[in-house]
Amino acid sequence: MLKDLVDEAAQRLAEPGALSATLNWYRAVDDDLYVLAGEVCVPTLYIWGENDMAFGEDAAIRTKDFVKAPYQFVRLTGHAHWLPNEGEPDLQPIILAHLRAYD
C-alpha cells in the first residue's frame, strides 16, 4: 500500500508545474517555518496524527491559541502526516460530526 501511495504521489508530481508549485510553498516560508496568520474566527476542527513527522504535538496543541471560536482537537492514534491518504475511514465520522454541529 505504501508503494502505491508513493507511486501515485510521484505520478502527480511529474505533471507539468506540479513539483515546482509544491516546492514553491516551502520556498516562500522563512527558514524558521514561521508563517504569519491572523486569528481564526470560525469553528475549527484540528485532526492530528500522533506519528506526524512534520507537525509536532506541541505545535498541534498550541494551534488552539490562534482560534477565537469553538475549537476541537482530535488525536488519531497510529496515523502520521498524510491523514487523507492513510486515515480516511477514521476521518469521515469526525469531519461529518463537526460539520453537523455547525450546520
The average pLDDT is 88
What kind of oligomer do you see?
Answer: single chain
Straight-line distance between termini: 36 Å
- Strand segment tally: 2
Q: Tell me the domain tally.
A: 2
**What is the 3D form?**
globular
Largest sheet: 2 strands, parallel
Helix and strand element order: HHEHEHH
Low-confidence stretches: none
CA radius of gyration is: 16 Å
Give helix % range.
Answer: 40-55%
Class derived from helix and strand content: alpha+beta
β-sheet strand percentage: 5-15%
- Could you give the order of strands across the largest sheet? 1-2
Number of helices: 5
Summarize the structure.
The protein is of the alpha+beta class and 103 residues long. The chain is built from five helices and two strands. The chain folds into two domains: 1-33, no CATH class; 37-103, no CATH class.
Description:
With 103 residues, the protein is an alpha+beta fold. The chain has two domains: 33 residues, no CATH class; 67 residues, no CATH class. Strands 1-2 form a two-stranded parallel ribbon. Strand 1, helix 3 and strand 2 form a beta-alpha-beta unit. The protein starts with a helix and ends with a helix. The mean pLDDT is 88.
Secondary structure elements and pairings:
Layout: H1 2-13, H2 18-27, E1 44-49, H3 57-62, E2 71-76, H4 83-86, H5 88-101
Task: Using brief descriptors, characterize the structure shown.
about 100 residues, alpha+beta, 2 domains, two-stranded parallel sheet, about 45% helix, globular
